[in-house]
Every structure is written in C-alpha cells, then in structure tokens.
C-alpha cells in the first residue's frame, strides 16, 4: 500500500512504536511471566512449564512455516487442514509401521504444499485464495479418508508424543531444533535472502533474475511439511487421530504468533525469535486467563486485542 | 526455472493490481473471456442443475427447491456484503462470527420486543463493521488481519453473552420475528424475498450510485481514486459497515428461521461467502465484480451441496473436497482470463 504521508506522527510516538514492534513481544512475555509468578498459585513448577511448553510446541512448529510464507508476502491458510490430513493418513498407514506412515504423510503434505505453491507461483493466484481452496479441500479429504476419531495404539508413536530426553519432551526439542534451522536458513543462506527479496518486491526479484517460482514453491512445501510435523506430534500426544477438530483455527494461531512476533504482513522481513516468542505470549495469555477461571471467550477477545495492537505497532514499518 | 506457464515471461507482478476497467477490446477472444468471467458460474449452475434434475427424482421438486432457496438466503446476504468489500480490494473474515453474534443477539433481544430483536444485532454488528473500516481505512492496517481479529473478538463476545455457548436463547413462537423467518409469501420463505430485495438494492447501489462508483474506483486503483477526489477512506469504512450490518441481519433472520440463537453457527461461513463471491466472477484484487454473480455463486455452492446429499452413499465431507477443488478451478480460470484481458 502506498504511503501517502497524510499524517506524520511525532518522533516520540514513532520511536515507541518501533520499540514495541521490536521488543514488545518479549516485554509481553516477561510481564506475563512476572505477573503469573506473583499471582498464580503453582505457576512456578516444572510440571506447569512442561504442560505449557508441550501445548505451545505444535503452534510454534506451524508458525515457523507461516513466518516463511508471510516473509514472501503470502499467507498459508491450509496449515490446519494439513494437520488434520496428516492425522488421518497416519491412522490409515500405521499398520505398515510408523516410518512408512510418516513417509506417506510427508508425501501428502508435500502435495498440498506443491498445489499451493503452484497456484501462487505459476498461476499467480493470491495466496489467501489459493490456500483457502486447499484449506477447504484438505479438511474434506482428511474427513473422507478417516470420517471419525480413531484411537491409535502404537507404542513408538505414543512415545513420540509423551517421551522426553533429560526431562525435555520430544515435542519441545523438535520445535526448538526446527526453530534454529529455520532461523539459520532465513539469516545465513542464499535461499533465505531470496525469500526476503521476493517478499520485498516480487517484480524486482524477478527482474534481478532470482528463481522466484522455485523459492515460492519450496516455501509453501516447507510450510505444509512443518504443519504435517505438528499434526503428527499432536496426534501422537493425543494417541488418537482426530481429523474433525485437529488443527482447527491453527492457521489463526500461527498467523497471530508471527504477526505479534514482529514479522510484517507486507513481507520482506522475517523474525523467527519473535515468532517463537509470539506463540509463547499467546499461550501464556490463554493460560493466565484460564487459571484465573476467566471463560475462554475472554481469551478470544484478549487475543483479538493483542493482534490489533501488534499490527498497529508494526503499521507502515514493513516495507519502505 | 521454467517459464512455460506464462505467456509473458517478464511481465512483472502477475499478482499486482491488474487493470480492470471494462474496456472491452474488439477481439472475439477478449469478448469470450469477458463473457466467461461474468457468466461462467451461471452456465455451470444451469448445467449442474439440469444434470441433477435428470439424475435425481428428488432434486427438481418444489420442496427441495424451496428448501435450497431458504438455506441459500442467509449465506447470500452475507455474500452480498462481502462482494462490496472484495470489490474495494479488501476482505472481511469477521462475517461468520458476526452471523453467529447477530443470531444470538436477535434471539436474546426478542424477549424485549421485535424492534430490539432486529435493531440490536444490526447496531452491534454494524458497530464492529465500523471499527473494522476505521482500522483499515484510517489506520491503514491490512484488512485481512483486522477482520481476523474482529472474527475472534466477535465470537468471544458471542460466547460471553451465552455463558460460553451453554445457553441458547429462543425466539418466541408466533412473534413477528418468528413470522419473518419462518413464514412464507407466495410459496417462498420470507428470508428468500428479503434476500432478493437486498440483492436488487445492492445491484442498484453498486451500478447506479456515486457510492457504487467509488467502490469500484477504490478497488481499481486506490491512489488514482484518491487523486480523482473519491473519498477513499469513507468508502472503505462504509463497505465494512455494510458487510457487518448484512452479516448481523443474516444472523438475525437465521435465528428467526431456526427459532433460536444457535451458538455454533457461522464457523467457516466467511470462507463460503468468499468462495461464492469469487466463483461469481468478482476479482479478489478488487475493481471488478458483480452482485448477481455472488448470488449465482451461493446457489452453485448450495446446489453442489444438495447434489452430494442426494447421492446418499457419499459422505458429506466430499462436499468440502468438491468445493475446494471447484474454488481452485475457478480462480485458475479467473486469473488466466484476467491476464488475457490485461494483455489485450
């Protein structure tokens, strides 16, 4: 959107907003931690931290892929559907063993990502619509494959969901490793640079001879694969495949985490540490409200306020 | 990297704002593509309906048709508001939540008289629309994220009003509101007539009024519209307000039809509405669109749903697969047609 300098905000306000956009999410996490330690009983326990972290891990994993997509000035609404699809596929192919089942999951997810990427990169469909089609169709396909909840009895899969190393659950470790990898890719690789350049200006990237289409397709495939990882881990934790409700509204949580974390929707910049912190912030906010017996409806309203505040702080600072 | 799929290898930004004024060129191909863009959905609707009525005895019966019409009415009203928003190049993801909120407010308000039952949802949903519009137009935030927040907030508000969804308010039998939703006139349900009236009004507003022209201008090229003196911000605020109002009204009518404010409604309705609008030929990039197309889009979605229900052996989740695939096909066709027209 062109910036018509209708109003020039005072320098102070500008600075405050800049600071908020960069560090607001960490400040928010810190404030919530302090407040909770002060007023929430039993907050400061290893058990509680473990619960919170296990709950937030799938959101972080999905949000990592979403951050990459948003960095290209896109958005991926199909992530929740991909989670559901991977739950269905795992349930269907678990009979052949866990590894073959995971391979088939990866194939399905890559297929969805390829479809998204091809629609966006080759046909030039807007990301919202392209991924909307896959969101509707993907959830439908998940339900066609597995119409109802199915309990899974596979010890390996169960240990994936509930096992730990030195007290750290696998879910958290996987999320942490993936976050490090994605952060490295964004900061230190050619691919990361190309991705940001495309988000900054796709025509310019094209004119500069960057492999725009290839990068876009890879980004959507990666987003779908990460969503599949989250779907498998969530299924493993539930020890049941639930294509009806698994991943519902996950796209919103992921987008919120990314945006709250300081990645502008206008593309060209990606903040991975902020994204992780954004997911944690929302998890803490929800947990705080729930632990003080405030109804879930308040959580949604609070989340809405946080999103608008985050985007407001980021206003006009995305692309220059 | 391959360039096999583009006809213009170095055309920058195929996703960017496309020139969409209706300067129909003289070429025959151009006219055909324009025709397809505008009436493609109608053709498909006719074909699907014909095939369905030959294949299923129960399809073309009076009962089935009136049922389809009534169940289409609510989505159609929401899609009408969405059409305006999308023509300005925006999007409104909050309509599903506003639909549910409107229904709950109408049912709750029906205890205090019909006037409250109708005005309360309109006032609250309209107000949320105004806030959406202000944030989009004045604060220049992305429509997608603003209305996403409104979607969460409105659903939260609805849940807070209904004891976290546990309480369902009922619409009293025999009240004017119930009559409005359940009664029939000339064989068709009242909501159908209201919907038709709204669409006629919407088409007139869009085609024949200054506001309508501003809606197209803002969607076509916002900066140019501003330079021409069109009130860009006001137009945007108005379209989001309109979308909120219509979503609230649709919810209220739906509650009247169901005789209760059901709290689990409206999930995913924003996606259905967007699909209907896009299928109807309105471009998501803004600047080009038809109110009538959105009505056709809604009918097409409902007919497909009905057909899938008629094939008893098919699970209803196939409907989602078909809808998703259909939406993909339509946007591919649209983008292709749009690019053709741009090149002419």
Automatic annotation (TrEMBL), chain A:
Main location: membrane
Subcellular location: Cell membrane
Superkingdom assignment: Bacteria
Keyword ATP-binding found: no
One Pfam family named in its UniProt record: BPD_transp_2
Keywords: Cell membrane, Membrane, Transmembrane, Transmembrane helix
Keyword Oxidoreductase among UniProt keywords: no
Transmembrane segments: 23-43, 49-70, 129-147, 167-186, 215-234, 296-314
Membrane topology of this protein: Multi-pass membrane protein
Protein name in the entry: ABC transporter permease
């Amino acid at each position: 959107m062109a910036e018509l300098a209708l109003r020039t905000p005072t320098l102070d306000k500008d600075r405050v907003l800049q600071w908020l956009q960069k560090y607001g999410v960490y400040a928010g996490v810190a404030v919530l931690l302090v407040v909770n330690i002060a007023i929430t009983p039993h907050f400061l326990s290893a058990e509680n931290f473990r619960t919170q972290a296990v709950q937030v891990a799938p959101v972080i994993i999905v949000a990592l892929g979403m951050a990459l997509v948003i960095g290209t000035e896109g958005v991926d609404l199909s992530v929740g559907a991909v989670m559901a699809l991977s739950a269905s596929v795992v349930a269907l192919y678990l009979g052949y063993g866990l590894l073959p089942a995971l391979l088939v999951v990866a194939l399905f997810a890559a297929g969805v990502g390829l479809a998204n990427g091809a629609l966006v990169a080759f046909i030039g469909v807007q990301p919202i619509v392209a991924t909307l089609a896959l969101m509707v169709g993907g959830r439908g396909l998940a339900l066609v494959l597995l119409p109802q909840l199915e309990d899974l009895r596979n010890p390996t899969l169960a240990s994936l969901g509930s096992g730990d190393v030195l007290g750290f659950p696998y879910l958290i470790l996987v999320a942490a490793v993936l976050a490090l990898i994605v952060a490295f890719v964004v900061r230190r690789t050619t691919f990361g640079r190309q991705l940001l350049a495309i988000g900054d200006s796709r025509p310019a990237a094209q004119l500069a001879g960057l492999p725009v289409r290839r990068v876009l397709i890879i980004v959507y495939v990666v987003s779908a694969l990460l969503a599949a990882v989250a779907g498998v881990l969530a299924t493993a934790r539930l020890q049941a495949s639930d294509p009806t409700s698994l991943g519902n509204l996950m796209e919103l949580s992921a987008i919120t985490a990314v945006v709250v974390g300081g990645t502008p929707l206008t593309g060209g910049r990606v903040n991975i540490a902020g994204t992780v912190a954004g997911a944690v912030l929302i998890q803490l906010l929800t947990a705080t409200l729930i632990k003080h017996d405030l109804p879930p409806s308040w959580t949604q309203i609070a989340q809405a306020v946080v999103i608008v505040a985050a985007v407001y702080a980021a206003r006009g600072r995305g692309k220059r | 990297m391959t360039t096999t799929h583009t006809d213009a290898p170095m055309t920058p930004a195929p996703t960017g704002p496309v020139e969409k004024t209706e300067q129909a060129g003289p070429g025959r191909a151009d006219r055909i593509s324009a025709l397809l863009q505008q009436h493609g959905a109608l053709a498909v609707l006719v074909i699907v309906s014909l095939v369905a009525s030959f294949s299923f005895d129960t399809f073309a019966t009076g009962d089935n048709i009136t049922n389809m019409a009534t169940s289409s009415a609510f989505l159609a009203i929401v899609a009408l508001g969405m059409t305006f928003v999308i023509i300005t190049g925006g999007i409104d993801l909050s309509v599903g939540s506003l639909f549910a909120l409107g229904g709950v407010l109408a049912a709750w308000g029906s205890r205090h008289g019909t006037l409250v039952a109708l005005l309360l949802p309109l006032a609250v949903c309209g107000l949320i629309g105004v806030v959406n519009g202000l944030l989009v137009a004045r604060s220049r935030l992305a429509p997608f994220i603003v209305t996403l927040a409104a979607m969460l907030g409105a659903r939260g508000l609805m849940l807070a009003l209904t004891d976290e969804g546990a309480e369902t308010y009922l619409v009293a039998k025999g009240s004017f509101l119930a009559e409005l939703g359940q009664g029939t006139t000339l064989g068709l349900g009242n909501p159908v007539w209201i919907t038709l009236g709204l669409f006629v009004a919407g088409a007139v507003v869009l085609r024949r009024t200054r506001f309508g022209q501003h809606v197209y201008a803002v969607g076509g090229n916002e900066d140019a519209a501003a330079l021409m003196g069109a009130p860009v911000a006001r137009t945007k605020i108005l379209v989001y307000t309109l979308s909120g109002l219509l979503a609230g009204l649709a919810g209220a009518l739906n509650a009247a039809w169901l005789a209760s404010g059901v709290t689990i409604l409206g999930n995913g309705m924003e996606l259905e509405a967007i699909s209907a609008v896009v299928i109807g030929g309105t471009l998501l990039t803004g600047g080009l669109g038809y109110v009538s197309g959105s009505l056709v889009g809604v009918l097409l979605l409902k007919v497909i749903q009905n057909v899938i229900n008629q094939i008893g052996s098919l699970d209803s989740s196939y409907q989602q697969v078909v809808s998703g695939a259909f939406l993909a096909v339509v946007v591919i066709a649209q983008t292709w047609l749009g690019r053709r027209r741009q090149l002419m």
